[in-house]
Design goal:
2 copies of one chain form a homodimer. By secondary structure, chain A is of the alpha+beta class. In chain A, about 50% of the residues lie in helices and about 20% in strands. Chain A is built from 13 helices and 10 strands. In chain A, the strands form 3 sheets. The first copy, chain A, has a 5-stranded antiparallel sheet with strand order 7-3-10-9-8. In chain A, strands 4-5-6 form a 3-stranded antiparallel sheet, covered by helices on one side. In chain A, strands 1-2 form a two-stranded antiparallel ribbon. The structure holds a DNA duplex.
DNA sequence: TGCTAGCACTCGGAAGGCAAGAGTGCTAAC
DNA sequence: GTTAGCACTCTTGCCTTCCGAGTGCTAGCA
């Protein structure tokens, strides 16, 4: 990695900070006056060309100030940025909101999206925690009308899945109870693959057709859940991004919206980082055709490590308040993890 | 209502159609040439001033063509527009997609949002059907760890609600089963108010503390559900709106996004119409400060009329393909209603 | 060797002027 | 009631000009 002198670091840090704050290219005079380095603007200029040569800065056009490149932002984030933790009052306010809301993962995620968007002034993204591998816990069959009903499947990780059932012929609630009791006994604690084997195997006994149908549906649901496809992603704060000057030209805004609206695109982004190690930052993209080449993404995993990984993150312009965003993401991820731990922690680790 | 001559109607219809297609103000020459009225452009101009005087058309500036006003669109939609049903192949394609997806209301709504956005080239909105008044059906308590668990509440309309429970002290699964059996017996078929009375009344017996806690939580959930607040709204196709030329100026785009991101704003919009009578269209707004004053909204209810009303709709620029959008909304609402009827219909009407 | 003052140079953006084009509104005649 | 004709208005694109910001370079200084 390129080594920069202290002064170069100071200058780079100032340029990045100033550009983030104002969205205007910053020139040598400005730096000279507000940076307190005790050197003239000419000297600054020399340093600027050095930084530009090394790819940390660029110029929109010949006679404009300098603007950070993606590489410049990366250096800033990794070495120069100072942490800015959320204030205590912000922290308590956030926790308070989470405790106020009803005890339901969906609600928490929605709230997390709202809070994160507000704190970071970017577009927040929250994906549900999902186990890569889970086990059967409980099934409940509830009759709705003569030939229709609801199957409610609870998995080991506490996730609840509902499916509507349309039976070929009338089915009574007693029959359903019989079937569910039997399935609860037979499938207790089975993993997805085992459940599949059992569902495809010989069932026999009373109500066989029904047992087979329900068990196959259960297995389908388990597979779909484990495959991670189709989990819901909560979003908020798109409006903050659209408010940034770099999205005045609508085409950029459209690109971002295109990504943000498409779950599969987001999952692809999530896949780019390993979330084991805390907050990760993706800055821009080398791929010029990439829809988020002008954006940065701050991500963190949350949940029960290794067991059920969810994702919280913020998408914003590259010109983003990194310090604050990172803190916000880290804090919200922490709160969500805590909440989940309170509920599942003992069981999982025990 | 103002009466228009046949020729004025023809002209208005043509102007609206042309403007929707091209987004350009349309002038008398264009009308004269492509409209086949057999009169000269001067005559057309005379009619145009008449239409403008009555408020159906306006001019962006003195020497531009005419553009429809909100009033013009309304007249168009109510009297001039010809229905354009979806083609049979489109219809079967849509139905097919709904049958492919897993039998789960959430999935259906997501799909509906996708399909509707695609067909209408606008931003789709889907709100879950929700009963104004519902009854207890079934409760299930599932232990997760020693002192935590899951409460799953099923209501009469088939909606499933989950809540996480943190108990004050360790609780066994047998205890939970005892409690849920008891609650299922005591609360069977109770409405929200009755359930509340029972939950607040004397319980007595074994496990009293637990019974009270769970029953109160159940009542909370029932109230929250009936109040309609906080139901989830599915969206898709924002990108289509942003693609329209009238949203080149980012400020308008921002306004729309602001509305679309805020659930409460959408519920307010939904509240503006009575959905009993099929597809409803809101065109623009008289309120100049309104965030959607440049937009139109095509809405329809779906579900089991009077029992559980959901909403499907499309938000688009005022310059919207009304014929197609109305058909798409009607069709998707129909499909959703059918699906729900298949499941709940017999029970509700029986 | 590093820093600085000075200066010519470049480029974008704003302002102004001009011509072309589109579309109107009016009038007089059919 | 309809139409041809025409003057008028207003936008749009284009070109030019001008200004200022900021650079890059060079020569001189410590």
């Amino acid at each position: 990695m390129d080594e920069l002198t202290q002064r170069q670091q100071d200058i780079l840090g100032y340029v990045v900070g100033e550009y983030i704050a104002t969205a205007k290219a910053v020139g040598s005079d400005t730096i000279c006056q507000s940076c307190g380095l005790g050197v003239s603007s000419a000297t600054i200029r020399n340093e600027l060309v050095a930084l530009a040569d090394q790819g940390f800065l660029s110029q929109p056009h010949t006679s404009a100030g300098r603007v950070p490149t993606a590489k410049g932002y990366r250096y800033f984030v990794e070495r120069l940025m100072q942490r800015s933790e959320l204030s205590l009052s912000e922290q308590t306010m956030i926790r308070h909101q989470f405790h106020q809301v009803s005890q339901d993962l969906d609600q928490w995620m929605r709230l997390a999206a709202t809070v994160l968007a507000k704190m970071s002034q970017g577009a927040s993204l929250i994906a549900a925690p999902q186990s890569h591998q889970t086990h059967f816990r409980h099934v409940e069959l509830i009759s709705i009308s003569e030939a229709t009903g609801l199957m409610i499947l609870v998995l080991q990780d506490g996730s609840v899945h509902q499916q509507m059932m349309v039976y070929g012929n009338p089915v009574s609630q007693e029959q359903l109870s019989r079937v569910s009791n039997r399935l609860n006994a037979q499938f207790a604690n089975l993993g997805t693959a085992q459940a599949r084997a059992k569902a495809l195997g010989e069932m026999g006994g009373e109500d066989e057709a029904l047992v087979i149908e329900v068990s196959r549906r259960m297995v389908d649901v388990m597979y779909a859940y484990e495959s991670q496809s189709n989990r819901e992603i909560y979003r908020d704060g798109l409006v903050h991004i659209l408010g940034q000057p770099e999205f005045e030209e609508i085409e950029r805004a459209r690109q971002v919206v295109r990504v943000l609206e498409q779950d599969s695109a987001l999952e692809a982004l999530f896949g780019r980082v390993q979330l084991a190690n805390g907050v990760q930052i993706i800055i821009g993209s080398d791929d010029q055709t990439d829809d988020i080449r002008d954006c940065s993404l701050v991500l963190s995993g949350y949940g029960l490590p290794g067991e059920a990984d969810g994702i919280v993150g913020v998408l914003g312009p590259m010109r983003m308040q990194y310090g604050r965003t990172v803190s916000a993401v880290r804090y919200v991820a922490g709160v969500m993890s805590d909440l989940l731990h309170r509920l599942y922690g003992e069981q999982m680790t025990g």
